[in-house]
Amino acid sequence: MNPQPPATSDAHEAVTPQALRRQYESGATVDELVTTSGLSYGTVLNRLHDAGTVMRTSWQTRRMRQNPQARRRLAARLRILYEQHGATLTELATAAGETRRGARRLLIEAGGTVRTTQQTQRMRAAGRAAERYKLALSLRAQYEARAPVPDLAQEHSYSIATVYRLLHQAGTRMRPQHRHGPTRRERERP
Predict the structure, then answer these.
(1) Which residues neighbour 158 within 8 Å (Cβ) at sequence distance 6 or greater?
(2) CB–CB of 40/34 below 8 Å?
(3) Comparing C-alpha atoms, which of 71, 26, 74 is closest to residue 53?
(4) How far is CA 72 from CA 30, 91, 93, 97, in A?
(5) How distant, in Å, are the alpha carbons of 7, 20, 59 from that of 53?
């Protein structure tokens, strides 16, 4: 049994199809209209359809209610994360508290262009290569300040071979190797 609409003419005006449409288009949800009108969910939907109302999805309602400036700031921040730091859509969704689709929508609103997976992988590989080259230059500076390779390896938690490879990558001029043990002349004597 459906509750009866209020008896006053003002209250009756509030449940006409046109009045429901005005309230809906100003941001009210169907559930809110059901609560305020006292009509059933189906009746509210039927009256909205009778009035020619274009229905929204739930995300469109959330978007409509959001502060537009806050949304623009969030979209701009996501674009920076995406374009300058190489974040993925999944990472953007986590940062924004959105779904991947919602994060993608925000990125596009901010003027960003969605990358392919291969483009993201290339971008991240280039970032890792730049970091590795920075490390190689740092190791070179320490090596040229007379730090031994085993100490550099231990300090940076790399193998000695990796430290040598990074030093070569940085174009380091290597010191002559020390020969531990007897000299060549001592070994040749009988």
Answers:
(1) 152, 166
(2) yes
(3) 26
(4) 27, 18, 15, 15
(5) 25, 9, 17
On whether the pTM is more than 0.90, the answer is: no
**Residue 68: pLDDT above 70?**
yes
The letter for the amino acid at 100 is R
Q: Are 42 and 72 in contact (CB under 8 A)?
A: no
- For residues 33 and 27, the answer to whether their CB atoms sit within 8 Å is no
What ranges in the chain are assigned the alpha helix state H? 9-14, 17-25, 30-37, 41-50, 58-65, 68-84, 89-96, 100-109, 117-144, 149-156, 160-169, 184-188
CA distance 33 to 40: 9
Tokens of 132: 């590795």
Give the model's pLDDT for residue 180: 63
Residue 184 banded pLDDT, cuts 50, 70, 90: low
pLDDT at 69: 84
| Lookup result for tokens 């174009």 | 171
12 neighbors 38 (Cβ within 8 angstroms): no
d(CA 43, CA 17): 10
Rg over CA atoms, the chain: 34
Reduced to 3 states (helix: H, G, I; strand: E, B; else coil), residue 43 is: helix
